[in-house]
Design brief:
The protein is built from 3 helices and 9 strands, in the order H-E-H-E-E-E-E-E-E-H-E-E. By secondary structure, it is an alpha+beta fold.
Length: about 140
């Protein structure tokens, strides 16, 4: 009976972890700085919020400190980037997808060491990567 309980609760825990909608990744910043070309585009307190890949028929809403900065279908990607925004690192950013019930909230303390946040959606799973450099994506199309 004890073995059954252990297997049962391990299975439930695995199910909960696999059902997470958002996967947050922080790339270490040790000695890594944004490329020089971007320093002239961004102010000291800004970073790029980059939506990578196609989002299919999913409507996306991006809010920066209660101000809507995007509320539409994502455009077709150009070179694997669908849309990019400059946002203030002292802002609270909320992102919602019409086909996902949970809203993603990004707080200032999460952004303070980074110059890029990459958001990639595959079906109903979203990967959010905080990084200080540009990112290369695979060329495989996302079929929603």
């Amino acid at each position: 009976m004890r073995k059954f309980k252990i297997i049962f609760f391990t299975g439930i825990l695995g199910l909960i972890v696999s059902c997470q909608t958002y996967k947050i990744i922080y790339v270490p910043t040790d000695g890594v700085t944004a490329k020089k070309g971007f320093s002239s585009i961004l102010k000291e307190n800004q970073l790029f919020l980059v939506f990578a890949k196609s989002y299919g028929r999913s409507k996306v809403k991006v809010v920066e400190n209660d101000k809507i900065i995007f509320d539409s279908l994502m455009p077709a990607p150009r070179k694997n980037t669908a849309q990019a925004f400059k946002v203030n690192i002292n802002s609270v950013i909320t992102i919602s997808f019409d086909d996902i019930k949970k809203t993603l909230t990004i707080l200032p303390e999460q952004m303070e060491k980074y110059k890029f946040i990459y958001i990639e959606k595959k079906k109903k799973k979203v990967s959010v990567e905080f990084i200080n450099g540009t990112k290369i994506f695979d060329d495989k199309p996302d079929l929603d």
